DNA sequence: TCTGAAACGCATGCTCT
DNA sequence: AGAGCATGCGTTTCAGA
C-alpha cells in the first residue's frame, strides 16, 4: 500500500512521469535503466498504491477563455468540524473553485478560482460564495500574472535529503 | 497558433486528456467520435499551438515525504517592474516554491510551497525568503488539510457558456 | 525480480473520399 | 478534414534465469 518504501528506481519513475506523463513505457524503462516489463509492473504498482494519483494534460486556461484567476480568502463564523466539512463540500460542487485549502491563522480557507471574466467571477462571488451560510468574510485577490506554476514536488530536494540520511 | 478557434471535438479532446492524460489515442478517438488518425493529428496540433502545455503524473507528495504545504504571502518594499521580475526569478530557482502568483491588493505575491517538514520550511523561510533583498513582509499559513485540488479548468462551464452565446 | 521472446494492440503514414 | 488500410513500434504476457 501507500507506505511501502520506494527504491531509487521507483523514485526515478515518479520523477520522469511527473515531468512527462505521456512518455512511453519503453522510453521510461530506458531512462530508469531497466527493461520494459518490470518498468510497467512498477508503474502499475505505483498507480495502485496511490503514489500516482492520475495523469492530466495541462491545458492553457487563458486561451480556452478562462481569462481570470482569483484567490479568495474565506473566514467562517463557526469553525465547528461539521461547519468546516459543510463548506468544503460546497467548494467541491462549485466548478469555478479549483482548489480549496484549509489554513491555520487568520483565514480559514484559501480558494483558487478560475473564471471566464471578472464579471462572471463577481456573480459567483456575490451569488454563491457570499450568500453561503456561515461565510463571514471573503477577501479576493486577482492574479495579475503567474510567475511560476510547477506541478508536483521537487524530486531533487527529495534525493539530496535521502543521500544525507539514508 | 494559440488563438485558432476550437471546434467541439477539440474541446472534447482537451477535456478527456485533462481528465486522463495517459489515455491511448484509439480510446480518445472513440470517445470524441472520430477515427484514430485525425484524432492524433488534432492532438498534435493542440500540443503545438500551446493549448496543451504538457502532461504530468500527479504524485502523492505526502507519501513521498513532503509532509507540509504552506502558502506564503509576500510584500515587497519596491514594486518597480525590475524588482518584481527579480523576485519572480528568485522564486523560479527555489525548488520548494511550486507556484508564484503576482496579486493585486495588499500583498504582492502568493507562493505555494512544499517541504518535507516544518523545520525545513522554517529554514527556507528564515534562510532564503526573508533574507532576500526587497522582501518586506512574509505571512505564512500552513495547509491543515486539502479539501479540493482539481487540475485545470471546468469544461462544463465552458460548454454551457458557448451554448448560450455561440 | 529481472531479462528475453513473442503475441497483440496502438501509432502513424499514405491514399482516397 | 475524415476514413480505411498497412506497417512498424510499443505494450503486455509468459517462460526461464
From TrEMBL, chains A, B:
Pfam families: AsnC_trans_reg, HTH_24. Residues 6-67 form the HTH asnC-type domain. GO terms for cellular component: cytosol. One of its GO terms (biological process) is response to amino acid. This is HTH asnC-type domain-containing protein. Transmembrane segments: none annotated. GO terms for molecular function: sequence-specific DNA binding. Keywords: DNA-binding, Transcription, Transcription regulation. Gene3D superfamilies: 3.30.70.920, Winged helix-like DNA-binding domain superfamily/Winged helix DNA-binding domain (1.10.10.10).
Amino acid at each position: 500500500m501507500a507506505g511501502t518504501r520506494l527504491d531509487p528506481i521507483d523514485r526515478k519513475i515518479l520523477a520522469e512521469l511527473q515531468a512527462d506523463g505521456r512518455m512511453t513505457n519503453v522510453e521510461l524503462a530506458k531512462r530508469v535503466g531497466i527493461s520494459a516489463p518490470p518498468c510497467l509492473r512498477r508503474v502499475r504498482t505505483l498507480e495502485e498504491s496511490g503514489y500516482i494519483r492520475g495523469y492530466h494534460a495541462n491545458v492553457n486556461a487563458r486561451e480556452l477563455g478562462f481569462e481570470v484567476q482569483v484567490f479568495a480568502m474565506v473566514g467562517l463564523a463557526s469553525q465547528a468540524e461539521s461547519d468546516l466539512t459543510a463548506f468544503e463540500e460546497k467548494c467541491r460542487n462549485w466548478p469555478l473553485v479549483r482548489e480549496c485549502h484549509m489554513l491555520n491563522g487568520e483565514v480559514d480557507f484559501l480558494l483558487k478560482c478560475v473564471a471566464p471574466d471578472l464579471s462572471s467571477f463577481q456573480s459567483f462571488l456575490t451569488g454563491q460564495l457570499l450568500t453561503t451560510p456561515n461565510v463571514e468574510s471573503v477577501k479576493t485577490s486577482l492574479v495579475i500574472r503567474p510567475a511560476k506554476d510547477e506541478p508536483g514536488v521537487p524530486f531533487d530536494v527529495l534525493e539530496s535529503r535521502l543521500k544525507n540520511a539514508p
